[in-house]
């Protein structure tokens, strides 16, 4: 069987996966805090028909060998954590991170997850939570008499209570960063979990030690650029067509061989 059939098939499979990633990026173009993904490819093993540097019939060395590639495969799908655009909302519990870092939340099973989505809400127990009701860690509680909420660039949470003009500090929001954020595992709901590849989470104060600052009343939008994704889609589509053409050509060659007569 011709190698071209299998090599081109791996190319079609890879480009299908690339299209899946592009489609996911485009579907989340308006998702708060979403980070786009990029597909990386690598060539497969090679079949060596003649080794470079081998001895020829006359005793001299062969300058170049003969190797035939067997296609490609996906080596990684990498998250790109570049900053997205900011949108002003004027909602006091909407927060954005200007720079590096993640908000930390507590899942129902007690484990931690991390997010760039700062569209927080206040639940029925006056706690700061995500849109799915997951607690922001450290826990921030607002009493029923709070009439004004102020969150500083360093994460300090202050409130003004009814009947008072003096702000009162009730807590602080900390940020977490990773040595390799691309190694985080996406679990949906704009959340990530730490893995061995991401390294251990490092907690810090916003605005210090390389951590980003916090801006109140803003949200970070997706970092997906529609034009870039459309170009990538065209490239993937054309590459898919070329690989399918290689399969058709290989099939025609096999058909010609099968129809040979003496």
Tell me the number of helical segments per DSSP (H or I, 4 or more residues long).
2
CA(first)-CA(last) distance: 22 Å
- Number-wise, the strands total 20
Q: Tell me the helix content.
A: 10-25%
Beta content comes to 25-35%
Mean pLDDT: 91
Radius of gyration: 27 Å
Shape: elongated
Residue stretches low in confidence (pLDDT < 50, at least 5 long) are: none
Spatial sequence of strands, sheet with the most strands: 8-7-11
Biggest β-sheet description = 3 strands, antiparallel
Structural class: alpha+beta
Number of domains: 2
From N to C, what is the helix and strand string?
HEEEEEEEEEEEEEEEEEEEEH
Description:
The protein folds into two domains: 3-81 and 224-258, no CATH class; 86-220, no CATH class. The protein is elongated. It is built from two helices and 20 strands. 22% of the residues lie in helices and 31% in strands. Helix 1 runs antiparallel to helix 2 (226-258). The model has no long low-confidence stretch (mean pLDDT 91). A three-stranded antiparallel beta sheet has the order 8-7-11, with no helix packed on it. It is of the alpha+beta class and 262 residues long.
């Amino acid at each position: 069987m011709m190698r071209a059939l299998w090599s081109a098939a791996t190319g079609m499979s890879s480009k299908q996966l690339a299209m899946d990633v592009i489609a996911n990026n485009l579907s989340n173009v308006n998702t708060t805090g979403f980070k786009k993904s990029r597909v990386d490819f690598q060539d497969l093993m090679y079949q060596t028909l003649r080794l470079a540097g081998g001895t020829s019939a006359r005793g001299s060395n062969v300058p170049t060998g003969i190797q035939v590639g067997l296609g490609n495969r996906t080596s990684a799908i990498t998250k790109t954590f570049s900053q997205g655009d900011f949108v002003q909302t004027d909602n006091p519990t909407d927060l954005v991170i200007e720079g590096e870092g993640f908000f930390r939340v507590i899942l129902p099973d007690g484990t931690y997850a991390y997010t760039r989505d700062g569209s927080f809400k206040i639940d029925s127990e006056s706690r700061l939570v995500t849109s799915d009701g997951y607690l922001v860690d450290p826990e921030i509680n607002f009493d029923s008499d709070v009439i004004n909420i102020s969150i500083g660039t360093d994460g300090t949470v202050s409130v003004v209570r009814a009947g008072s003009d003096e702000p009162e500090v009730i807590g602080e929001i900390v940020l977490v960063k990773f040595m390799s954020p691309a190694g985080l595992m996406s679990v949906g709901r704009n959340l990530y979990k730490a893995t061995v590849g991401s390294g251990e989470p490092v907690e810090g104060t916003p605005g210090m030690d390389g951590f980003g600052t916090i801006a109140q009343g803003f949200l970070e939008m997706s970092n997906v650029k529609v034009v870039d994704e459309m170009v990538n889609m065209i490239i993937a589509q054309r590459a898919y067509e070329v690989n399918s053409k290689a399969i058709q050509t290989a099939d025609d060659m096999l058909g010609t061989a099968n129809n040979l007569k003496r």
